[in-house]
Amino acid sequence: MLLEQHYNCRCADNSVNENQNSQKTQLLSITVCLLTCFFVAEWSVGLWSGSLSLQADAEHILSDIAALGISLFASWLAHQPASGRATFGHRRVEIMAALVNGLSLLVIAIFICWEAIHRFQSPQEISGLPMLAVAVLGLVVNLLNMTLLHPHSHDDLNLRGAWLHIIADTASSVGVIVAAVAIHFWNWLWADAAVSLVVAGFIGLSALPLVRESLSILLEYAPKSINPAEVEVFLKSFPQVLQVEKLYVWRINREQVMLCAHLMVDCATVEEGDRLLEELQIHLKQTFGINQITLQFSHPKSRSVMPIHPLFQQNLVSMLSVEKKSGL
């Protein structure tokens, strides 16, 4: 009978601080309300003044409102407890929201570039002072939103996407201010389209890293900070680990790194295997920052071939001949 010993480490979900979750939801709600009020004002003045950069910024803010709404819903859903078939919970929803935010930024950048090129060919009269007033108001609103979201944007990819939208809004406001000053004092109508192109380029460049990181998580790539080959060498450095047969490293979200490995080990007793398992868990967490680990052990003796009974080693012809002789 073949015997195989397995040692498994249960994946324990990280406890989520309820106060931080409610604070994040509250900040997103405040940001959405402020942007909604500003969008109405900017879109109205943009149509009245004829400013393309102001209308482009208003369209950008409208997409931000939708993106932040998605982020708000994703933030709520991601922190619902795991249940049923959602054994990991719903944390990937935040990554999907970040990807949607990044792709929407790219679409907005392309649209603004298209409109700006057409405006270069046929410049239109623009009222500089209303354009300047709304742009200054937008700058104030965006700076306030940046201050609210920045402390929480480092470790949360979903909030990082929302924060990048606000950064792009802030750059748009600064660009519109520059264009408004140029139009009001020097009547440089081309400045409106030129600033729109610069803002579009900034939006596109800020969106690319967000899209790339979101896709790497959804495709279950190992994080850049962890080289699976180095992890394998590290595991083999333990004398009791004879072979690393399967090793998987991936992320559920930006901070939740998972590791699953099948190791062939030389442990004489169950107690010795338990000590090795605990030691590996501690060192993997300290060295690579992996917080959820599943390890499976197997003993080399369990892979050896069992001895065959002498009866089955006999030749079938000789066995039949023996039976025939005994029958005679």
Structural class: mainly alpha
Distance between the termini: 39 Å
Tertiary shape? elongated
Number of strands: 3
Provide the spatial order of strands within the biggest beta sheet.
1-2-3
Task: Average the pLDDT over all residues and give the rounded result.
Answer: 78
Task: List SSEs in N-to-C order.
Answer: HHHHHHHEEHEHH
Tally of alpha and pi helices: 10
The low-confidence parts are: 1-17
- Percent in strands: 5-15%
Oligomer: single chain
Cα gyration radius (Å): 31 Å
Helix content: 55-70%
The major beta sheet can be summarized as: 3 strands, mixed
Descriptive report:
The protein is mainly α and 328 residues long. The protein has helices at 18-49, 52-78, 92-121, 128-149, 157-186, 190-218, 228-236, 270-288, 310-313, 316-327; strands spanning 241-251, 257-265, 292-298. A hairpin with a 5-residue loop joins strand 1 (241-251) and strand 2 (257-265). Mean pLDDT is 78; it is low at 1-17.
Give the topology, please:
Elements: H1 18-49, H2 52-78, H3 92-121, H4 128-149, H5 157-186, H6 190-218, H7 228-236, E1 241-251, E2 257-265, H8 270-288, E3 292-298, H9 310-313, H10 316-327
Parallel strand pairs: 2-3
Antiparallel strand pairs: 1-2
